[in-house]
Design a protein that fits this description.
Elements: E1 3-8, H1 12-24, E2 28-34, H2 38-47, E3 51-52, H3 56-60, E4 65-70, H4 77-86, E5 90-93, H5 101-114, E6 118-120, H6 128-139, E7 145-153, H7 173-176, H8 179-196, E8 200-208, E9 225-232, E10 237-243, E11 254-258, E12 261-265, E13 273-277, E14 282-285, H9 301-310, H10 319-338, E15 342-343
Parallel strand pairs: 1-2, 1-4, 2-3, 4-5, 5-6, 7-10
Antiparallel strand pairs: 7-11, 8-9, 8-15, 9-10, 11-12, 12-13, 13-14
InterPro entries: Gfo/Idh/MocA-like_OxRdtase_N, Gfo/Idh/MocA_Oxidoreductase, GFO_IDH_MocA-like_dom, NAD(P)-bd_dom_sf
Pfam family, one: GFO_IDH_MocA
GO molecular function, one term: nucleotide binding
């Protein structure tokens, strides 16, 4: 059985990740695009041999569309995703699920009421290295994870966004909302929860708009850097850095310090995982290069989403998972703003 997919929002994330992965999936027969800028929708429809919808209602009311990717800007996720779920669609929502807990709960409630699938695109769970790292941790040879540090940074969304300029919506408070914390940081919060089988419960942080300016040359309205300290429910301690000003190269690395050794993930370009045991043994895994803004590869997200719909399985990243990561991210921003330790 094949079915149509719909995409709401036709920016870079739709163009470089969602659309090509739907196009390559054997169970997707056609893609229908909607964007508030009709030319963008038409452009992607032409590029991927799909169709453009004139209104979002046209897309939502099309009974032949079974799955929808919500690739709109952050402030609209809770609106489009909830509407799509209640219109009978299975939805893959870009992160963050929403900008507030109230709106995020509306989305989760729409999923519960509709009974349809909701997956949120926290794509770090899908890389082979992160999946292998979780497997190594669960095997137990390294013992418990005691402390960790993680980072995610690149040169900024103005180099990635559809208009390639400082006017990007990522720099606008009313549309981006959470700055680099909601763009990159929330991915790593979800990853820490996934790898450790644990949840962050206490945070402190510093943030700033250190370097980025908008189209008028003014400092941007949201943070371009944030550095935080984290404590989990199981008393693990960690640090995290998220940045839009890593101008030399992208950094997407994580280090886990365990009872019996250390695991480095995406720390070495040749070996995606390096394990150093406390008795001196070194084990290296060569798996795959991580997807970056400059190196677009199949993320596996669309295939996993389509598979969970076809087989009626629980999504790899649920709305509840996304709620948990959003709650921590909002706590980090609150801690940075107030200069205090925040309990999640």
């Amino acid at each position: 059985m094949t079915f149509k997919a719909g995409i709401i929002g036709c920016g870079s994330i739709a163009k470089f990740r969602h659309a090509p992965e739907y196009k390559a999936n054997p169970y997707v027969s056609d893609i229908v695009f909607y964007d508030r800028n009709p030319e963008r929708a038409k452009s992607l429809a032409d590029m991927f041999e799909g169709h453009a919808a004139d209104t979002v209602e046209e897309l939502l009311n099309d009974s032949s569309i079974m799955v929808i990717s919500d690739c709109s800007s952050n402030e609209s996720h809770h609106i489009f995703t909830a509407k799509a779920l209640l219109s009978g669609k299975h939805v893959l929502c870009e992160k963050p699920i929403a900008l507030t807990m109230e709106h995020a709960n509306e989305v989760v409630e729409a999923q519960r009421k509709s009974g349809n699938k909701l997956m949120v695109d926290h794509n770090q769970r899908f890389t082979r290295a992160h999946q292998k790292a979780k497997e190594i941790i669960e095997k137990g040879d390294l013992g418990q994870v005691l402390t960790f540090k993680t980072t995610f940074g690149h040169q900024g969304p103005e180099h990635w966004g559809v208009n390639k300029s400082n006017s990007t919506w990522f720099f606008k408070k009313d549309r981006s909302g959470l700055g680099v914390a909601g763009d990159l940081g929330i991915h790593k919060i979800d990853l820490v929860h996934y790898l450790l089988g644990d949840e962050i419960e206490q945070v402190s942080a510093f943030q700033g708009a250190l370097d980025k300016v908008d189209e008028d040359g003014e400092p941007i309205e949201v943070c371009d850097n944030i550095v935080c300290s984290l404590k989990t429910k199981q008393k693990r301690l960690g640090t995290a850095s998220f940045s839009w000003t890593y101008y030399g190269e992208e950094d997407n690395s994580t280090i886990l310090y365990c009872e019996n050794g250390t695991m480095k993930i995406y720390h070495d370009p040749e070996h995606q995982i390096e394990v150093m045991t406390k008795d001196g043994e070194v084990i290296r895994y060569q798996l795959e290069s991580i997807q970056t803004n400059d190196n677009q590869t199949n993320s596996g997200v669309i295939d996993a989403f389509v598979d969970c719909v076809r087989s009626d399985q629980e999504p790899i990243v649920t709305g509840t998972d996304a709620l948990s990561s959003l709650k921590v991210t909002l706590g980090i921003l609150k801690a940075a703003k107030s200069g205090s330790i925040v309990k999640i």
